[in-house]
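This part of the workshop introduces the protein records we will be handling. A record pairs a protein's sequence with a compact description of its fold. Backbone structure tokens are a discrete shorthand for how the chain folds in space. The question running through the whole workshop is how a given chain folds. The record below serves as our worked example for the rest of this section.
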Amino acid sequence: MNIRANILLRVYLSFGLIVLFAVAVLVRLCDVQFVEGPKWRAMADSLSTKYINVEAARGNIYSNDGSLLATSVPEYELRMDAFAGGIQDDDVFYSKVDSLAQHLSGFFKDKTPKEYARMLRIARRDSSRYLLLKRKVNYQDLKKVRTFPLFNVGKYTGGLIAIQQNKRILPFQALAARTIGYKNKNVSNAVGLEGAYSEYINGESGKRLVQRISGGVWMPVNEEAEIAPKDGADIISTIDINMQDLAQNALEKQLIASDAHHGSVILMEVATGEIRAVANYTRVSKGVYKELFNYAIAGNQDPGSTFKLASYMALLEDKKVDTNTLIGTGNYKIPGHTIRDSHGSIGVVTVKRAFEESSNAAIAQMVNEHYRENQSEFTDHLYNWHLNEKLDLQIPGEAQPVVKNPKNKSWNKNMTLPQMAYGYEMQLTPLKLLSFYNAVANDGKYVAPIFVKEVRRLGNPIEQFQARVINEQIASKETIRKAQALLEGVFLNGTGKSLASPHYRIAGKTGTAQVADANRGYRAKKQYQSSFCGYFPADKPKYSLMVTINDPKGLYYAALVAGPPFREIADRIYASDMQMYNEVTERLVGHTVYPAAKAGRSTDIKKVYQSLGIKALYAAKSPYFNSIDTSNGLVYQEYKDVKGQMPNVYGMGLKDALYLVGNAGLKARVKGSGKVVSQSIPAGSKIGKGLAVQIELK
């Protein structure tokens, strides 16, 4: 019995010890979890580090004339380490915290001094190492904040933490915005040059070591990134900022006047294929238009009468007709349909006259009668001219052209061919059609349009682009010569006669096409597209131009709707481009007062003076110079560009002033017009990137 009792006693004692041990463990766990938990969690957090990417500054996008179209400016997120090395002493912190609150409140004006003081004191109490103060702060404001109490103790010890981010801005705002495009992290589709050339523009991300602190917030360990980011390369586009501004203004003015739904303008340099301007506007409300869609490269539509050029060229190339062949106008009947001329019959006329007056019946009759037995003979020309193919543009979004042939299921052997002859039963973008006209202007050499001419890094070219030749000679020289005469005749004797200029010759074609409803066809409602495609000067083509106005209200004929903006753009470009003028033969004789000139590019001013027979009194080697008033002649002072100093733009025109200010990394605010009479930052002053400068012109 005693033995049994001893065994039970030992069992109970052992069990008791186990229970006591378990209770002790449980107590210790509770102590670690609830009493010492914050300490150990903070220690665990302090031991958690990782590297994060630091975004590189995206490269700039420049216009053809050097103007800054898109750039990145630094923007900062301001935070505070309430226990930074220089302010760990309570006496230091609390003696200046109210003054800091007063400064922050007065500067940002988003909280009262009491609210800031309370926020800072709570951060100190809670040992906050990464308190958010303000987002989206520019560099100039950051410099000011660094002078505030506590923060001025030292760059790394005063508690201020500035996290740099990059903000993308367009100095000319809406100018060429759709062509410039944008980068959106949440959208995979590339838009414009920003999207197409992101591989160059993005640069290479850097690396920064961050440490997790209480609350799960990751704070940079060091002020600078461990691996510095590599800034992106710069893109030199073909866009001319002045021509772009002109194109947008002319298009918007006509859209408002016609109360049209949308429209586009494209300006292309004939020899190089470089796009100088692209404008696209969509009506968002009465009299208000915005750039929402790139109709120029993505707006597939029946081209209408502007396509007749291709039809006539096929006939001429195959020698089916000549320009003096006679043809009837008015009505032309095909099975199930009658093709009419909207202005009525002009009788039996020459092929050239039928083109000038844009007779639908004439071209439908000629194409149908000459190609009816071998319809693919006509469409083969269109395919040989690559009208059925994309242009393989440098920017995304180009629509696929739709050009039928007899093998298509939708081909109607009685109706498709004659209707294609005057621009129906197909889908082409404005840029596609303009490129074809440009080939005629270029004596038959068909080049693909380009939007980017060069990629530069640190000012050095790393890649250059030239227009791709689609076809060295789209037709015989004889056909091209006759096509050029047809296009010029439109302005001399035809539908474009009212738009002819007394100063220079224009060649082109009007086009008025009825727009089909997607579901109900052409009869659903009367909606038209007016277009005008051509080039100038006709005797020595330099620019080709396409204007398209969709769904104008009231008047809809192309000469009355698309014609005015075409003429306005052509006139102003001709007036401003000295290369289009004949050499100046008259000289200034007997004048004692020399003509005034703006300061600016030396090459431009030299050219004007040489044409006028004036010898300027200067010997400048730099590309820019500043003028000095004198009664003895034209004296100029050489412009010296010093990095980090405000340039002297006094006396310059806006274009030159913006170029120099933009190159210096400044943001310009402009007032007035004429030449610069004042600049808010004196020339020679020290400047920082992103600083704003007010420029006044008179």
The mean pLDDT is 84. The chain has 21 helices and 30 strands.
